[in-house]
Amino acid sequence: MNTEEVYQEYGDFIFKYLLTLTNNSQTAEELTQETFYQAIKSIDNFHNNGRAKFSTWLCAIAKNVWLQELHKEKKRKQLEESLQNEDTLSYHLEEEYFKKENKINFFKQAHQLDEKKREIIYLRLLGDLSFKEIGLIFGESENWARVTFYRAKQQLRKGGQKE
């Protein structure tokens, strides 16, 4: 199957998946293109793996592309805000160090969670999605998403160990 055939077969599926994550058709289209670009670059990883379905592998790439975009957008907004408020900002190196340390510890602990809980934490906190939206992504109820998020949060407070 060549690149064009792969895009024809899976392009609409990936676009719809990203549209549910972004709620913006233009962003979803851009991220779909980036997803296929990344997939082409790393196609050998899929062939060597052989355990996952191709569509699942593409969704994983799409999710990572989306999370990277969220991170870039957050950084862009922070830069804009800091430039707008440059006169009023008082920069404290020690505070920034502790913020960074807390962020590193959070991601270390989140990494210890099982994949589903980790994804729900990221979708809720980084993606700023509602529990209803998270439930839709997983094909579950809003209440399921809320309870799973709560359990993941409790697990993070205990140090990220799997239950």
UniProtKB/TrEMBL annotation:
Start and end residues of each RNA polymerase sigma-70 region domain? 7-75
Indicate yes or no for the key word Plastid: no
Q: Which Pfam families match?
A: Sigma70_r2 (PF04542), Sigma70_r4_2 (PF08281)
Q: Spell out the InterPro entries in the cross-references.
A: RNA_pol_sigma-70-like, RNA_pol_sigma-70_dom, RNA_pol_sigma70_r2, RNA_pol_sigma70_r4_t2, RNA_pol_sigma_r2, RNA_pol_sigma_r3/r4-like, WH-like_DNA-bd_sf
Residue ranges of domain RNA polymerase sigma factor 70 region 4 type in the record: 112-156
Q: Name one GO molecular function term.
A: DNA binding
Q: Is this entry keyworded DNA-binding? A: yes
Domain of life of the source: Bacteria
User: Which keywords accompany this UniProt record?
Assistant: DNA-binding, Sigma factor, Transcription, Transcription regulation
Its BP terms in the Gene Ontology are: DNA-templated transcription initiation
Give the UniProt family note.
Belongs to the sigma-70 factor family. ECF subfamily.
Stated name of the protein: RNA polymerase sigma factor SigM
Q: What organism is recorded for this protein?
A: Oceanobacillus oncorhynchi
The upper taxonomy is: Bacteria, Bacillati, Bacillota, Bacilli, Bacillales
Gene responsible for this protein? sigM
